Amino acid sequence: MPGMVALRYNPILKTFGERLLASGHAPKAVIGATMRKLVHMIYGIVRTGVPFRADFCSQKLDFQDGI
User: Is residue 27 part of a domain?
Assistant: First the structure.
């Protein structure tokens, strides 16, 4: 469920999910990749103590390859 909600409301993960769907991934694979990316984002926030900023890596998102 968190992955599905993140795909709908988080602008970074929404763009990520749309890109994976456009490249031909299965919908459940997109949800799984989103969950993994969400866990990495949460871990980074907890580890650094810096609040979440939606515009932090949106410029770099276009250049990412793979999952």
Answer: yes
